[in-house]
Amino acid sequence: MSAINTLGTALAISSLTLAMFGCKDQNNSAPAPQTVTSASSSSSSQNAIKLTPIDTLSITDYALGLCIKNTGREYVEEINALICNNKGIQHLDGIEQLTELKTLHLNFNQIQDINPLVELKKLTSLYLSGNQIQNLEPLSELTELKELGIQKNYVQDLSPLQSMSSLKSLHTHSNRINNFSILSDLDLAELSGQNRQES
Predict the structure, then answer these.
(1) CA 20 to 30 Å from 115, out of 38, 64, 75, 154?
(2) Can you give the residue range of the structural domain that contains 14?
(3) Which UniProt keywords apply (predicted)?
C-alpha cells in the first residue's frame, strides 16, 4: 500500500512539473509573433508613399493636360519623362506638380513663360526648341540639367546658364545670342549654334 502511495505521489509531482514547464514555454513564446507583427505594421505605415492621382492635377493649359493624361500613368509620381512636342501648348502652369520629371520635351509649341519649370529640380534633359522664349532665368536653378535645347526662340542672354555646372550639351541656333564667352567656365561637351544666330 505504501509503494502505491509513493508511486502515486511521484506521478503527481511529474505531472505538475510538466504542466509548469509547458506553461512556462507557452508564456515565453506567445508574445514574440505579436511583437514582430506590430513592428512590421509600424514600419510599413512609416515607409508608405503618398501617391497623387493624375486626375487631381491642376493644369491650366488644355493641351498640356491632355498630353500628361496620354502618358497612361495613373499617378503623378510615375511620370519621369514627358514628350509634348507640337501640341499647341501655350502655358506651363501646373507642370511644376510633376516633381519626378527627368526628361521634358516641349518643342514647337507657343510657350513664352517658362517660370513653372523652376520647381522641376530633377530635370536632366530639357528641350524647348521652336517656342517664343526670351528669358532663361528660371533655368538657373535646375542644377541637375545636362542637356538643353533652345533652338528657334528669341533668347539673347545666356548668363542664367553660366552657373549650371552639370550642363554638358547646349543647342542654341536661330536665336539672337551675341555673347557665348559667358559660358567659358562650363565644361560643355557639345555647343551648337554659335554661328547660326539671327541678326
Answers:
(1) 75
(2) 2-47
(3) Leucine-rich repeat, Repeat
Q: Are residues 129 and 37 in the same domain?
A: no
Q: Is the pTM of this model over 0.70?
A: yes
30 and 111, same structural domain? no
**Count: domains in the chain:** 2
Cα–Cα distance between 116 and 144 in angstroms, integer?
16
- Give the tens place of pLDDT for each residue, 160-189: 999 999 999 999 999 999 999 999 999 999
Do both 155 and 108 map to the same domain?
Answer: yes
Is the distance from CB of 185 to CB of 162 less than 8 angstroms? yes
* Residue carrying the nine cell digits 539672337: 176
